[in-house]
From TrEMBL:
Signal peptide: none annotated. Keywords: Cytoplasm, Hydrolase, Nuclease, Ribosome biogenesis. Transmembrane segments: none annotated. It comes from the Eukaryota. Gene3D superfamilies: YqgF/RNase H-like domain (3.30.420.140). The keyword Oxidoreductase does not apply. This is Pre-16S rRNA nuclease isoform X3. Residues 22-127 form the YqgF/RNase H-like domain. One of its GO terms (molecular function) is hydrolase activity. One of its GO terms (biological process) is rRNA 5'-end processing. InterPro entries: RNaseH-like_sf (IPR012337), YqgF (IPR005227), YqgF/RNaseH-like_dom (IPR006641), YqgF/RNaseH-like_dom_sf (IPR037027).
Length: 192
């Protein structure tokens, strides 16, 4: 596994744009659970997938589960939620996320895959606010919260880069169409 910048993962994601386009997996790494979300086959929408139980003794089992998902879902990379500090300092949670990813990397089961960190600030809080009125059992609420926090992380990543890509694409497309239009008009002009 290789840590890459978000734009590098997105570029890899764009290059995989063949018939069997690669998908992304979002991870919300917590102390007890890792929430998972997956992008759709068009890579526009993130959906909840599952929750893995996280223990110090089961990192190899988690790596095997992720390896199976990579194969089944044609995954090309992971978008890992990371609690970036507004003050620029690493929090305990941030250190835990990095340690978890390093442990996964050391298993060797996910070699060749790229991952990046993406801001997860407030994703769990937003999901929690939505779930509170439902009065769910605490365990059910926690697993739903972790999956949907992963959805929030992955969807934000996809929307951010697709928005930038679409804006750049439409801008260049509009410029191209304007140039064509000017050329057509000048060709249609009677010559003296």
């Amino acid at each position: 596994m290789k840590l890459v910048k978000p734009i590098e993962l997105f570029q890899k994601f764009l290059k995989s744009g063949s018939k069997e386009q690669g998908r992304l997996l979002g991870l919300d790494v917590g102390q007890k659970y890792v929430g998972l979300a997956v992008s759709d086959t068009c890579n526009k929408i993130a959906s909840p997938l599952s929750v893995l139980v996280r223990k110090k003794t089961n990192i190899d089992l988690m790596a095997r589960d992720l390896q199976m998902l990579v194969s089944q879902l044609s995954l090309i990379g992971f978008v890992v939620g990371y609690p970036f500090s507004l003050q620029g300092q690493s929090s305990v949670e941030a250190v835990q996320v990095k340690l978890f990813m390093e442990e996964l990397r050391k298993t060797g089961r996910l070699d060749g895959l790229c991952y990046t960190y993406w801001n997860e600030n407030y994703t769990s809080k937003c999901v929690e606010a939505l779930l509170d009125p439902l009065n769910l059992h605490p365990v059910e609420s926690k697993t739903i919260m972790d999956k949907f926090a992963a959805v929030g992380i992955l969807q934000d990543f996809i929307s951010h880069f697709l928005g930038v890509f679409v804006d750049q694409y439409s801008h260049s497309l509009l410029g191209y169409l304007d140039d064509m239009n000017r050329n057509l008009k000048s060709e249609d002009m009677p010559r003296e």
